[in-house]
Specification:
Chain lengths: 141, 107
């Protein structure tokens, strides 16, 4: 029985740098390696690549959308025999020019089987969760 | 948003209720009387909040003699304390690194 559900993590930050410069950091592999993970990325729709994490895990990715200086989207899949750890998601970066620089938004939308969550994670995370609750509520109707 | 999550959010949105839940998380089992001591509200109000937390599955109560002992059910938070929070923290950390990189890059 695998009831699937969708969730998204969103982070936005304004950087005092122009979109063109941020775009380079998002799309040139030696630069991506400096802030995200080691990779064999190419800014071409359909290109398959891997992101290799410091923890030894490898993410399977495929470029979905490339609109220079505006939008970059790729899949972010973590295959695992244990469905509690497996993850299929899509990461989308959106760049919007501002008077001071650029607003960068990343959204990661995920699809995963509704497994019982690791209780350890829930336990460690509950304080963080409570701390963020006000923000979450602010976004609710 | 699924009903379970809405119920959890609503249950914890109230500061008094959240404080009760946090105390149960920190201190383990407590009676209504114990909880009322530091709650800043009357015992009937505490009982009402506990009933709401119980409905959301966040606390459970069992009778011991004439007293009801309550405890936090952390597992009830699992649907919320999930990967979206971890990923949000992950991206915030990555954005810190990105900012460092941008400051080092040429125009």
């Amino acid at each position: 029985m695998s009831e699937t559900e969708t969730r998204a993590a969103v982070v936005e930050r304004e950087f005092a740098h122009p979109p063109e410069k941020i775009w380079r950091a998002l799309t040139q592999k030696h630069l991506i390696a400096e802030w995200l993970m080691n990779n064999d990325f190419l800014a071409e729709t359909g290109h398959r690549f891997n992101l290799v994490g410091d923890w030894g895990g490898t993410l399977d990715c495929e470029v979905l959308a490339v609109e220079p200086h505006e939008t970059l989207s790729y899949t972010w899949n973590y295959p695992n025999d244990d469905p509690a750890f497996a993850l299929e998601s899509v990461v989308t970066f959106t760049l919007t020019p501002t008077p001071k620089g650029t607003l960068l938004r990343v959204e990661q939308a995920g699809f995963r089987p509704d497994q019982k969550q690791a209780y350890g994670g829930a336990h460690a995370g509950w304080k963080v969760f409570l701390g963020k609750l006000d923000g979450v509520l602010a976004g609710m109707n | 948003m699924p009903d379970t999550q809405t119920l959890l959010f609503k249950s914890l949105a109230d500061p008094t209720r959240r404080a009760l839940f946090e105390r149960l998380c920190r201190e383990g089992e407590l009676t209504v009387a114990n909880l009322t001591l530091e709650a800043g509200v009357s015992q009937p109000v505490v009982s009402k909040h506990l009933a709401q937390l119980k409905q959301a599955g966040l606390v459970s109560g069992h009778h011991q003699g004439r007293q009801t002992h309550y405890r936090a059910e952390l597992a009830a938070l699992a649907p919320l304390a999930d990967w979206t929070i971890r990923m949000t923290e992950f991206w915030q950390g990555r954005f810190d690194e990105l900012e460092d990189l941008l400051n080092r890059m040429d125009q």
